[in-house]
Amino acid sequence: xxxxxxxxxxxxxxxxxxxxxxxxxxxxxxxxxxxxxxxxxxxxxxxxxxxxxxxxxxxxxxxxxxxxxxxxxxxxxxxxxxxxxxxxxxxxxxxxxxxxxxxxxxxxxxxxxxxxxxxxxxxxxxxxxxxxxxxxxxxxxxxxxxxxxxxxxxxxxxxxxxxxxxxxxxxxxxxxxxxxxxxxxxxxxxxxxxxxxxxxxxxxxxxxxxxxxxxxxxxxxxxxxxxxxxxxxxxxxxxxxxxxxxxxxxxxxxxxxxxxxxxxxxxxxxxxxxxxxxxxxxxxxxxxxxxxxxxxxxxxxxxxxxxxxxxxxxxxxxxxxxxxxxxxxxxxxxxxxxx
Length: 339
Ligand SMILES: Nc1nc2c(ncn2[C@@H]2O[C@H](COP(=O)(O)OP(=O)(O)OP(=O)(O)O)[C@@H](O)[C@H]2O)c(=O)[nH]1
Ligand SMILES: [Zn+2]
Known about the structure:
Blueprint: H1 8-37, E1 45-53, E2 56-61, E3 68-72, E4 84-89, E5 95-100, E6 106-110, E7 116-121, E8 125-131, H2 138-151, E9 154-160, H3 170-181, E10 186-188, H4 198-204, E11 208-212, H5 219-226, H6 231-240, H7 246-249, E12 252-255, E13 263-266, H8 268-271, H9 280-286, H10 311-317, H11 323-338
Parallel strand pairs: 3-5, 8-9, 8-11, 9-10, 11-13
Antiparallel strand pairs: 1-2, 1-4, 2-3, 4-5, 6-7, 12-13
Helix pairs in contact: 2-9, 2-11, 5-6
Enzyme class: hydrolase
EC number: 3.6.1.-
Keywords: Cytoplasm, GTP-binding, Hydrolase, Metal-binding, Nucleotide-binding, Ribosome biogenesis, RNA-binding, rRNA-binding, Zinc
């Protein structure tokens, strides 16, 4: 937390700005109430937040149709891209969002002050992209999986650049086999061949997805191929990402042209997902093959290191937990201790 104290004058200015904002929101809300009462808005209809800029949102109707620029009723706060909402169209082509539906799940990221803030909602799957080059460390994949499990959103492993894969597949194939055995879907892709995205497209169909993964694995290349018309915008997005400007950091929802209702939510912030802070319990539960064994250790506060009667260590002994996954678990927990 910042120790810097605000001067009285700064405090006064901030209070003044906040009061002005609140007054404007109230005015807008009073106007809405009048217009709603006067029947100037059409009937309530379901929609989905496509993008948001403060209190202004783009809302897409369910199914086909263009997005409508909407504002929010004053009693609605913190909507994010992907939220399902109820909105009403105005005669001038704008709209007003009147309610938010319950969220299935939400993706959060720490803001500048380290507080978790929602960035996107109602996501069906997190596509963890890694590549033949730069070669993935199993530990990094495990970190992403743990972070995904903590959100409750299903992870999918996407191995990109398979055009660079050696004939026999080598160690990477073995590594992937391990994750498939745990029940994680693995999809192989390449942007170097016309048919290199077939398996991915099938996976995206009918779902809302986000792409995450380390730099250089090919996220931009994959998204450019999936959204050819959006190429320029996406390109601009990734180039500007480090500047952190308002419009480029906001998450956007894209409908996939080639599929049946498949959607993509993307932003530089989302792509960096996986680097969030987790606690030890989340890490332990994030290793899905541990779950059957948890709560069975002799000591209730077992940390699964050298304790006698540790159910996890016994499962490693019996070959039910892969020793490398267990080593990876240890490494992740140890880095938590350092921070
Ligand atoms: N051989 C091969 N190269 C690829 C493939 N996909 C992407 N690349 C290359 O990999 C490099 C990195 O791709 P990007 O799409 O920029 O990767 P990114 O994950 O978006 O990286 P950041 O923007 O840094 O997060 C580029 O030089 C791409 O041309 C592929 O399927 N095969
Ligand atoms: Zn234990």
